[in-house]
Specification:
The protein is about 35% helix and about 25% strand. The strands form four sheets. A six-stranded mixed beta sheet has the order 6-7-8-3-9-10, with helices on both faces. Strands 16-17-18-13-19-20 form a six-stranded mixed beta sheet, sandwiched between helices. A four-stranded antiparallel beta sheet has the order 2-1-4-5, with helices on one face. It has two domains: about 230 residues, P-loop containing nucleotide triphosphate hydrolases (Rossmann fold); about 250 residues, 3-Layer(aba) Sandwich (Rossmann fold), CATH 3.40.50. The protein starts with a strand and ends with a helix. The chain is of the alpha/beta class. The structure holds adenosine-5'-triphosphate and magnesium ion. The site of adenosine-5'-triphosphate has 18 residues, from helix 1 and helix 15.
Amino acid sequence: MAAALKLAGVRKSFDGFPALDHADFEAEAGEVHALLGENGAGKSSLMNVAAGLYAPEAGRIFVDGEEVVLTGPRDAIARRIGMVHQEFKLVRPFTVAENVLLANWRGRFAHGLREMERQIRTQAEQLGFAVDPRSRIDELSIAERQRVEIIKVLLAGARILILDEPTAVLTDEEAVRLLTTVRTLAARGTAVILVTHKLGEVTAFADRVTVMRGGRAVAVLDARSTTADELTKLAVGTRVTPPRRASSPPGARRIAVEGLQVARADGHMTVVDATFHVRAGEIYGIAGVGGNGQTELVEALTGVRAPLAGSVELDGAGDTTGASAERLRDLGIASIPADRFGYGLAGGLSVIDNFCVGQVHTAFYGSWLWTDGASMRKAATRAVAEFDVQGVHNMRQKSALLSGGNAQKLIIAREFSRDPKVIIAHSPSRGLDVRACAAVHERLLNARAAGAAIVLISDDLDEVLSLSDRIGVMTRGRIAAEFIAPADRQAVGRVMVHHA
Ligand SMILES: Nc1ncnc2c1ncn2[C@@H]1O[C@H](COP(=O)(O)OP(=O)(O)OP(=O)(O)O)[C@@H](O)[C@H]1O
Ligand SMILES: [Mg+2]
């Protein structure tokens, strides 16, 4: 039987630099096919070719054995190829149904919104999701938005479903739910392509796995009989050992948060009472199911959102409650936000500008009258090399063109290069390959050894458990319990779900 999707000898370059070269790929109907490879290996680019978004310079595409030429995403949808992208493409002020309708207006417009709402409900039910077609995208959590994306693509008729790092933005529990749904879809004959950096997902949920390196596929393996070690070696060329936290006595209280209350933009109070402190040389982990106030807590701690009540005290600076992001930055607070392009980077600006933004006014790169372009370039170039941000061929290139993981590395390079006193890190390893993930963990531990106070908020419980000195579990806007390392995974997990 011919493969549902086959790509042969694909080549695609950007500004003369090849992102894909002789890339081959095949997925069969009824299988979950994982696509693995380091940041910048070309996974998203290859899938964008299959989804009709990028026109390849060379290579052939076959659907069910028949050669096709895709002139655009609509063409790919007509061939029943659908893709859920790494950065979602939903229109935020619109409702779920309106978004689905926008993507499917041709064939089903005649039936209108009502019919669309009915179809969304049916599709959601079949997948085991609860989705209200009338809610606005803004009001939905990341996991819910992702379900909308999947429903949108399936209602357009996709039977080759490409999911680009779907679990990067999900909690463990949400990820297992999604992957179980994915298995159901495969059992019904869909070819599911799952791009991921999580090796455990590959061995537990995929049938086969293609490993990419440097723009081409280097191996296709049976996912069930391979090991995480073998996959890592193929993907990054070496073995990766995660860094370990050395025990060391913490110093003085660096940041103290007392009775903090924060509301979302719509007025809903999501942080009800956050009380904790972090000492110099300490990592304070905040575990919890996503959507329990973590994002708003981070926003309040980094000056993006003013709290309604409570206080934040910073050692040496006194009360900094409600201080602006700029002031907090000047006081030595670094921030690695979970929403890369929302808060972390200005996609339209160059790599240099993104690196130096926030320091231009500090006279570090010239005075307020002029900026020292040469030293900006030098500092940015050094950091890009040191933090292994790949795919930067020109420091003036827009940061939006970096691969997902490399964009995250650029933020991390910027934030760590300032010797911060306090680091607020929200899902810092999101979207990073195994090696980059280990490198970020090592940076956090080095900053801890150098005396920084670190707040680590993460949906990834293992990340929190392995790095933190103390762990607060956040549920319903409160730190419901605190654990001292080494904390028992199940005990932490119980508080997470019990109070949620
Ligand atoms: N539209 C674009 N313009 C310029 N360069 C691009 C574009 N899209 C991708 N690239 C480059 O192509 C290379 C491969 O990127 P791609 O996004 O395919 O990697 P990836 O394997 O998906 O990585 P990640 O795991 O970080 O998401 C990178 O160097 C990236 O900068
Ligand atoms: Mg990608």
